[in-house]
Amino acid sequence: MRRAITLTAVAASLGALLTACGGDGAAKFTGAGVEAKAGTWRTYIISSGSEIKVPAPPTGSKAASEQKEVERLAGERSQQVQDAVKQWNPPVAIRPWMDLNIELVSHGGVKDPPTASRSYAATSIAMYDAIVAAWDWKYEYNRKAPTGVQTLTDAGGAPSYPSEHAAIAGAASTVLNYLFPAEPVGTFDDLAKQAADSRVQAGVNFRSDVDAGLALGRAVGEKVIARLKADGYDKKWDGTRPAGIGGPPQFWEQPPGIITPPVQPLAGTWKPWVLSKGDQFRAPAPAPYGSPQFMTELNEVKTVKANLTDAQKSIAQFWAGGAGTALPPGLWNQIAFVYIEGTHQDVPRAARIIAALNAGEADAAIAVWDTKFTYWSPRPLNAMRSLGLDPTWTSFLPTPIFPSYVSGHAGFSGAAAGILSYFFPSEAATFEAKAQEAALSRLYGGIHFRSDNEVGLDLGHKVGQAVVDRVKQDGAGT
After folding, report:
1. Any idea which fold 15-52+65-229 has?
2. Is pLDDT of 19 > 50?
3. Which one of 165, 353, 447, 468 has the minimum C-beta count within 10 Å?
4. pTM score, two decimals?
């Protein structure tokens, strides 16, 4: 039986944790994290930050009662409470939920990159839209954070109501509950409540702040779920290949000894987040089976495998991203957080980066799978044997169960490099080098031809540019 996801699993991947002092400085609405215009930024699912109505915060005796609760909880802080505050209030507020999503993908039975990228996109976009909505209402009501108690974390400079941390928790938990129904009932709701409660226990939010934030986030999450239900993911493949696509050896077949159907043959038809449709950047046809270019590239795969260096093996294994890992789009999320944390992005901007990255990764998956299942090109392993180059040849990495052209790793990496380069332009060369390495890793692994990687990178770059073009028009500036 699958184990339940716990706070310990989330906490294990968090970096340095914030500590903060008390006082009423947070009520001035100045400094880092204010982003007074974030409520006007362009959203992905909701029409605008004001679409989902948030009622006014309480006043009078109700507000006074909430202040007393904050003061009472400040005097009852056990070690368990302090640990929970640390776990749910890291430098990047969305990080615990993305770490949880990665944990679920790695150990929750998600075995293919398109499904993983869909999961990451849905969760991160739900959090981003919830944050934009929270910011819209924050500056509608301009409620000050609690005062008069020692705080355990930073209240931030923005108004207190509704709580963005609670909105994040409500949105993420709602979407994850839909995406991972095998988890024990109540798991994600319990985590969301713990995350929200931690803000009151830390002395930085009132109870109505987090209640309103949870409700807002859950409403956004439900809209994301409605979108997921209509994106084509649940459509079943009928086993039919496109017109003109025959069987082996000219076209793809499973690796020897495997009878499993191809992985997600309809992923190219799923609804994208930014692209108009999956075939918007469909790659041109690959070199025909047995053609001079095909044979040249096949012989290169054979030569590379015969002369693999330890460094090349390490690169292949680092980027392998098979079942039981975060898969390639998850790895790029982990890379992104290094730069987000290193540059101290505030809550709205960190969420904006991760949402854009994952929209691009999900759309890259759709675009890559559209190309893969348009041409059904064979993998090196099958071609090596069917063409008689080596009837016993095996690849260094396990050969995936879907067509070769184009490389998914290259597509994901090209998109990620382009998107992250926009947000961190001084690191553009670093991101592009990582993308090139990820693409080459598949040649080293013996599971892709060189053109799979080169054309895949180009396709990924086009997807990334489409996302960047959207981001440039979202109203957030640079």
Report:
1. Vanadium-containing Chloroperoxidase; domain 2 (1.10.606)
2. no
3. 468
4. 0.93
